[in-house]
Specification:
Layout: E1 4-9, H1 26-43, E2 46-52, E3 83-86, H2 97-103, E4 108-114, H3 116-129, E5 133-142, E6 146-148, E7 151-153, H4 155-169, E8 172-174, H5 176-186
Parallel strand pairs: 1-2, 1-4, 2-3, 4-5, 5-8
Antiparallel strand pairs: 6-7
Helix pairs in contact: 3-4
Length: 187
């Protein structure tokens, strides 16, 4: 039987309304991530939290040791759930994430978190390239408006574009409700 792990990417305080880099819809996405997290805990499946810190105090957000760089209370790690500290967009780069997955014989990943167009995109593509089967919970991810060539791209369009791209060849992309219903039916 395949062994799965939930990977929570960068659900940190600076992304919330009181933080330095708030994301569109982050509260609702974190609530969905918390639902999936509780299901993993009840099932006894592996949970790994990933937290980003920049290496410089003059970073725009996630400055080292700041309150904004801490995991949000909605998804705090419990017990033996590891927290992987990363300094790059890709959670596999120069971290122990892959070693943690290998130690647990994990073959399937479920991914939630932020930002859809950065760290979520990077970890999903890297995981698929490393041979993991990936499920991405689209409504448990958040992003923000982007600007390109003088045009503002609304966060909802950014998010949908990245979810569509990842669904095309890297992951199964489903809602939290769809995922949780499928898990309940399989139990």
């Amino acid at each position: 039987m395949a062994k799965q792990a939930l990977i929570l990417i960068d659900i940190q305080n600076d992304y919330f309304p009181q933080g330095k880099w708030p994301l569109d819809g982050v509260e609702a996405a974190a609530d969905k991530a918390a639902q999936v997290l509780q299901a993993f805990r009840r099932a006894g499946d592996a949970v790994i939290h990933v937290r980003h810190e920049f290496t410089s105090d003059d970073a725009p957000f996630f400055t080292p040791g700041s309150e904004g760089a801490y995991l949000n209370p909605k998804v705090l790690n419990e017990g033996s759930e590891p927290v992987v500290l990363k300094h790059f967009v890709n959670a596999f780069r120069e971290t122990n994430l892959r070693a943690l997955l290998e130690q647990r014989s994990i073959t399937e990943l479920v991914v939630v978190g932020s930002m859809s167009h950065m760290c979520i995109d990077a970890v999903v593509r890297a995981a698929a390239d490393l041979g993991y089967k990936v499920t991405l919970i689209h409504d448990a991810c958040a992003t923000r408006d982007l600007e390109f060539n003088g045009k503002v791209i609304p966060a909802a369009h950014v998010h949908d574009t990245y979810m569509a791209s990842l669904a095309f060849g890297y992951a199964g992309v489903v809602s939290a409700q769809e995922y949780l219903q499928a898990q309940a039916a399989a139990a």
